[in-house]
Amino acid sequence: MQLHCAAPLSDILTITSLILLEFHPEVEADTVDWLLGKILTPEPLGGLDLLARVISQTRAGGAIMVVGATPERLLLEADEDLLFRHKPCCPIGGQAREVGDLGGTRPTEGVYGMLSSAECVTLVQRILDRLRVGEGEEIQVLQRIPLLPGEPVMASLSRLRVLTSIYPLHEAPLLQSLQGRWWAGWCGLKPFSQREHWQLLEDIRAYFGEAVALYFGFEGSLVNALLLKSTLSMFLSFYPLRLGNNLVFFTISSVVWSELFLQGWREKSKALQRDWGTVVTHPSHSHSSTAAAVPRVAQGTAPPQSQIDAHPFGKMSLRRLQHSFAFLTCTLCLSSITILMYLHLDGLVGDFLLREELSFLFHNILVYLPKIAFTVAMAGMDYVAFQLSQGLSPDPEPPGHQSPRQQPLLPEVILSCLFNHFSIHLYRALVLNDLIMVRFHLSVQLATHLGIKLLSAMLLRRLRRMRMPPGRAHQEHQSHVLRQITEQSNRPLCDTQTWSYLELLISYCHVMFFSGIYPQCALWCLLTIIAKSCMDLWHLCSGARRPFPRTSPGGNVLWQRVFCGFEALAVLLNSLLLWSSLEFRLLFLKSFLKQIKLTHLYLASLEGHS
């Protein structure tokens, strides 16, 4: 398919923000040329007056269109409230601090100091969403399906899969500095203070948007809370308390710790949103270029109801109910079969070790290997369940338009993953009353999870090289921007944050459910989340395509409710685990006998006085 460049390369390189549109390989050249013309046409004539160019093709053979705007156009598109609102990292006094800059300032030029990178991308996306089919225009797209006059172009092309993917282009210099500061802080090379951490969150928000920044803020708060709890747990686990008192203390302290952590994050997230403001990604658009670009939600108020309740859990359609039943049936059956196979294998290994005398090395291999293999298998089952839930989504979102709910089958995914991780422990604790084996299996499971994260973190560069296809000969003569576009078009799409929050929830449940009987849970989860934090930022910066910046206070509130719900569930489970413990039963029996003895002595003393 031969396509002509509609904008010179020099104009493309001066664009402030770039958005890439990938077309299906079977789309005709006339459709791409029509869309290119609509984007380049001035607004009074029904176009968008943006810069655009078709520069390359994907590996599947589809065309790639680059769309962007000049700084002057973005300044005209933005409203005053967005341009001149207070920004913690960008004072208005003529000096602007760039994302990732290590403290230096430079004179403002054009859009810098007034619009962040995330706001520029949001404005370009807003302009694209405003495009409509003109009156009297007839365009035939994939499979000879026409677009009707007045129909939104970008939404229709995404729905018809003419556009297979829409995503903004990464800005490499900003990412390198941002990723270096994040790694240096978590790895201890240059630990950042509380103020530096808040500044880093502001830089992440200025590039990736508020939803990503809130996630990293939540992750940092959980790390700080686990650091305090693991220090206290490690100290008290070696302190000789009375028999059974350790279990009671650790159980009660876990509930107090969780309440302080969740309440602290609620206050911190509100403070961050008050400082940042709320930028709505998909407001109602008008056809005027001087309309309010990104309206703000009033501080301390809830976001629009249509964004929070995009996929309410209470309203289940018949189709969603069918998908939910099919999903739970498949995942729970597969997990149950895997658990039964593991229990059978573990029993065979135990019988073999009792009959045979083996060396120390082979004995430990047979003891640890089934549990390590089972942990890896359950991690694979989590990934399968997540991918299956995405395939069964009743109402998939078009590319570049993710809703704050992020995952239609979220309750089912959470139930499946928690069943994979905790059913075997609860069976041994509540049915077999074998807390010693639960502690041993927990230590192996958490150490395996940490090993997987550390192994992935050490192989980041190699994984990236393996994922990228080898360069072609003609790419050596391309400019840096064109090579970057070609390289990023071969990256996978950036998934929603459901998987990231789900991993944090699993670590949180490990601490809440089992830190009473196994206090070292907090330390293992702390190390795992630190490694996960580095992995998360690498995935956003180097492992996947850049996601569209968006605001999701509804998603943040949703996950806060999920964590609070499992906090309440942990109280019941810890009570059952306490009763299953032999130490607690002995303590309870001893206290009960002591109470009977004191009552008997008191009654005897009353008889003596009488």
TrEMBL record:
<keyword id="KW-0732">Signal</keyword>
<feature type="domain" description="Anoctamin transmembrane">
    <location>
        <begin position="204"/>
        <end position="589"/>
    </location>
</feature>
<keyword id="KW-0812">Transmembrane</keyword>
<feature type="signal peptide">
    <location>
        <begin position="1"/>
        <end position="29"/>
    </location>
</feature>
<protein>
    <recommendedName>
        <fullName>Anoctamin</fullName>
    </recommendedName>
</protein>
<feature type="transmembrane region" description="Helical">
    <location>
        <begin position="365"/>
        <end position="388"/>
    </location>
</feature>
<feature type="transmembrane region" description="Helical">
    <location>
        <begin position="325"/>
        <end position="345"/>
    </location>
</feature>
<dbReference type="GO" id="GO:0005886">
    <property type="term" value="C:plasma membrane"/>
</dbReference>
<dbReference type="InterPro" id="IPR049452">
    <property type="entry name" value="Anoctamin_TM"/>
</dbReference>
<feature type="transmembrane region" description="Helical">
    <location>
        <begin position="442"/>
        <end position="460"/>
    </location>
</feature>
<dbReference type="Pfam" id="PF04547">
    <property type="entry name" value="Anoctamin"/>
</dbReference>
<dbReference type="InterPro" id="IPR007632">
    <property type="entry name" value="Anoctamin"/>
</dbReference>
<keyword id="KW-0472">Membrane</keyword>
<keyword id="KW-1133">Transmembrane helix</keyword>
<feature type="transmembrane region" description="Helical">
    <location>
        <begin position="558"/>
        <end position="579"/>
    </location>
</feature>
<dbReference type="GO" id="GO:0005254">
    <property type="term" value="F:chloride channel activity"/>
</dbReference>
<comment type="similarity">
    <text>Belongs to the anoctamin family.</text>
</comment>
